[in-house]
């Protein structure tokens, strides 16, 4: 049986990628093997996607001819590297793609000697095809590997290539960003409830405001400051709200959040 795509770690991000790759026909279920330790998760992945699921990472490593996709927590990376250390791949040289926060190319390349490695940082909107992924290329990659990674991550959203020195900052911004934006949506809705709106309507207003604003910025290519100015009437409601945001350090809180997440990504790679 020829497997092309091996996924190590069938959790949130692994499944997000897998589901879109299958949906897009980039891989057929019979070409995919997934390793996952949790029995209930194994059963779910097998039933939902009709892929081969195993508990054995070495089987994935040995069988996947084209891509080994690492989607485990960074904290289990060294255990997996040890587990796979003695396996020699004689007949194929798969591209290893890692989405592990913080784990640098030189650690990945040491764990998979001689194999082409790409470090990537996607985000959870990948689940609905609206992801943002940054990739950086390892020393043993060529244009074909670059194209393969671009094909995989294009299936779940937009892709940019950056130098590795920027990957921790990418992680702090777009990798972690969906959590910050979710808090923003939740807090906006809470504000609406505080101002007297029923919860359901407040949630709908908050979500559509964030979605619509992002879409408008995206489609118009308008600078965010310009859109802010367009909303803000002299002596009006918006400037009253913005004054409060500035007083509470809203901008600074977001800047510091991205910096803290970047620093944590750097720590995870040590
Ligand atoms: N969540 C996010 O928004 C993003 C996450 N990432 C990165 O993606 C990676 C995965 O994150 P996420 O999907 O959120 O995490 P999850 O915990 O949802 O997924 C990890 C999966 O790996 C499984 N696993 C644990 N140990 C092993 C092992 N030894 N061999 C094989 N599988 C194993 C876990 O099983 P079990 O649950 O039983 O432990 C789990 O199903 C992380 O490195 C993270 O930094 C990158 C971008 C965004
Ligand atoms: O929180 C984390 O560590 C991962 C990496 C980016 C998003 N989630």
UniProtKB/TrEMBL annotation:
Pathway: Amino-acid biosynthesis; L-proline biosynthesis; L-proline from L-glutamate 5-semialdehyde: step 1/1. Its main location: cytoplasm. Residues 164-268 form the Pyrroline-5-carboxylate reductase dimerisation domain. PROSITE patterns: P5CR. It holds the Pfam family F420_oxidored. GO terms for biological process: L-proline biosynthetic process. Coiled coil: none annotated. One of its GO terms (molecular function) is pyrroline-5-carboxylate reductase activity. Its EC number is 1.5.1.2. Keywords: Amino-acid biosynthesis, Cytoplasm, NADP, Oxidoreductase, Proline biosynthesis. Belongs to the pyrroline-5-carboxylate reductase family. PANTHER family: PYRROLINE-5-CARBOXYLATE REDUCTASE, PYRROLINE-5-CARBOXYLATE REDUCTASE 3. This is Pyrroline-5-carboxylate reductase. It comes from Nostoc piscinale CENA21.
């Amino acid at each position: 049986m020829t497997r092309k795509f091996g996924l190590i770690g069938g959790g949130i991000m692994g499944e997000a990628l897998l589901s879109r790759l299958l949906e897009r026909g980039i891989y057929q279920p019979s070409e995919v093997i997934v390793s996952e330790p949790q029995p209930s998760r194994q059963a779910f992945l097998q039933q939902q996607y009709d892929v081969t699921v195993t508990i054995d990472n070495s089987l994935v490593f040995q069988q996947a001819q084209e891509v080994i996709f690492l989607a485990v927590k960074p904290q289990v990376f060294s255990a997996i590297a040890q587990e796979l250390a003695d396996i020699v791949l004689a007949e194929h040289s798969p591209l290893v793609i890692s989405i592990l926060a913080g784990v640098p190319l030189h650690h990945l390349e040491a764990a998979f000697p001689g194999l082409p490695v790409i470090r990537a940082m996607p985000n959870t909107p990948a689940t609905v095809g609206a992801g943002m992924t940054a990739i950086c290329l390892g020393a043993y990659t060529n244009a074909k590997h670059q194209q393969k990674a671009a094909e995989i991550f294009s299936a779940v959203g937009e892709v940019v290539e950056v130098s590795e020195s920027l990957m921790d900052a990418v992680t702090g911004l777009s990798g972690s960003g969906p959590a910050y934006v979710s808090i923003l949506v939740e807090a906006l809705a809470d504000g609406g409830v505080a101002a007297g709106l029923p919860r359901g309507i407040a949630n709908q207003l908050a979500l559509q405001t964030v979605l619509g604003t992002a879409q408008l910025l995206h489609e118009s290519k308008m600078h965010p400051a310009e859109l802010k100015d367009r909303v803000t009437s002299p002596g009006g409601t918006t400037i009253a709200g913005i004054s409060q945001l500035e007083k509470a350090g809203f901008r600074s809180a977001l800047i510091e959040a991205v910096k803290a997440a970047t620093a944590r990504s750097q720590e995870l790679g040590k």
